[in-house]
Write a structure and sequence with these properties.
CATH class of the largest domain: Mainly Alpha
Number of domains: 2
Structural class: mainly alpha
CATH architecture of the largest domain: Up-down Bundle
Number of helices: 16
Strand content: under 5%
Order of helices and strands: HHHHHHHHHHHHHHHH
CATH superfamily of the largest domain: MFS general substrate transporter like domains
Oligomer: single chain
Shape: globular
Radius of gyration: 23 Å
Largest sheet: none
Length: about 450
């Protein structure tokens, strides 16, 4: 349906848009496949949850370090050149994995370099769209890019990387990723150059931008202090994003220690969760109009707690199933694996139930004049929320097992669920009164 609309509005006849969109598909799929492969590779080499956590941490740090600089640089540089160079640099960085395939330092360095370069690619890509797409087509173009963002995760992280590694090995996958980044760079090179630059990059400009960024963040935090429902919605999203980062770091160790399977089988957890997100998106269209955003978010948070507790309790059950398997009772372990994958699916549904209504509520309630600054705070929250857990979850899992990590995550979600309960209920009542008032006015 979305593709048909795009064709009717001329997007699929717009060569520049097709080039950017194709480059996004290739580069996002390649980046997700690289992350998936490096997670499995590091887990295989080290047999350590701490090492996997550090790998994810190296992907989280660059947005914190370079986020403001990236936006500043992109605004004052030819965006076509930025996209070409960033894709070329990512291809070049991945070549290191061909030279030092099973080297731990190389894996960390490549992950950090690719994440750092991506920080510059993303705003350049987003800023290019308004220049090559008609204003009336922007909504459809952004919808296609959002669809691609999610589809590239499923294709690269869950399908491409596990399959290629299983049947052809890491070297073949890394070579394919290099080709995909290089092809994305070639596509971006066909774009028209950016218009004349109004302001050149300089030390004084950088200082002004940083000061302006601090002021904007202060204004956004002041606004959020008066709009608690929006502030709590931001917290919900940040917490769920943090849980996903933690799950990505622990997934290889989980399948090794709990499911008694090789590390590269972690797709057994990731794939059901991804499918659950898609199923949750479909269910939201049926549930949200009937019960409202607040209750859907509360249901999602409660379901998340239940899923985390099931995953935390899994290890002793896995030990029993493993002993049964070694004794000849092979029927117990597959059923147990099925329960865990089903729990991962439920977690994916809960993730959609929390994040999508929260984001929708923010978009609907935020005044346009402060929207960008509030989303900047969201990015900051996601980074801050992710850093400390990623530093802790690996060592805790290695010392005391994975169960305490999931119990701690469940406790965090319970605290957030209880802390925002009254605000969710109040916001729901206020929205209901507003809808009644609007309907009454319309009937008059």
């Amino acid at each position: 349906m979305e593709i048909e609309t795009a064709a009717q509005q001329g997007l699929l006849r717009n060569r520049a848009f097709l080039a950017v969109w194709s480059a996004q598909i290739l580069s996002m799929t390649a980046a997700n496949a690289l992350t998936s492969a490096l997670i499995a590779l590091v887990a295989e080499v080290t047999k350590s949850n701490t090492s996997s956590s550090l790998l994810i941490l190296f992907a989280v740090i660059p947005p914190v370090l370079f986020g403001i600089l990236a936006g500043l640089f992109v605004d004052r540089t030819d965006k076509r050149l930025v996209m070409v160079v960033t894709n070329a640099l990512r291809a070049l960085a991945v070549t290191l994995t061909l030279l030092f395939e099973r080297n731990l330092v190389t894996a960390y360095a490549v992950n950090f370099l690719v994440a750092s370069v991506t920080v510059f690619f993303v705003p350049a890509e987003a800023a290019t769209l308004p220049a090559i797409v008609r204003k009336r087509d922007l909504l459809t173009a952004n919808s296609l890019f959002t669809f691609t963002f999610n589809g590239a995760f499923l294709l690269g992280f869950i399908i491409l990387a596990p399959l290629v590694v299983a049947f052809a090995g890491y070297t073949a996958l890394f070579a394919a990723i290099i080709v995909m980044f290089a092809a994305a760079a070639a596509l971006c090179a066909t774009l028209p150059p950016s218009g004349p630059l109004v302001e050149r990059l300089g030390v004084d400009v950088a200082g002004q931008a940083i000061e302006r960024g601090r002021r904007d963040i202060g204004e956004a935090l002041g606004f959020l202090a008066t709009r608690r429902a929006i502030a709590w919605s931001l917290i919900y999203i940040a917490v769920m994003y943090t849980l996903v980062a933690m799950a990505g770091a622990l997934a290889p160790g989980y399948v090794r220690e709990v499911l008694l399977l090789p590390e590269r089988s972690f797709a057994l957890l990731v794939a059901p969760a991804g499918i659950g997100v898609v199923a949750g998106l479909g269910a939201l269209n049926l549930v949200t109009p009937r019960v409202g955003h607040g209750r859907v978010v509360g249901l999602g948070l409660g379901t998340t707690v239940a899923a985390l507790i099931v995953l935390a309790a899994a290890r002793p059950v896995a030990a029993i199933a493993g002993r049964a398997a070694k004794g000849g009772g092979l029927e117990g372990l597959p059923y147990f694996i099925g329960v865990v994958t089903l729990t991962a699916f439920v977690f994916g549904v809960a993730y959609a139930f929390v994040t999508v209504p929260s984001m929708t509520y923010i978009q609907e309630e935020l005044p346009e004049v402060i929207r960008g600054r509030v989303f900047g705070v969201l990015n900051m929250l996601v980074s801050v929320f992710s850093l400390l857990p990623l530093l802790l979850v690996g060592p805790v899992a290695d010392l005391w097992g994975i169960a305490p990590v999931f119990v701690g995550a469940a406790a965090l979600v319970i605290a957030v669920w209880m802390g925002g309960r009254r605000v969710r209920h109040t916001a729901l009542i206020d929205r209901g009164l507003a809808n009644v008032s609007r309907d009454t006015g319309a009937s008059r």
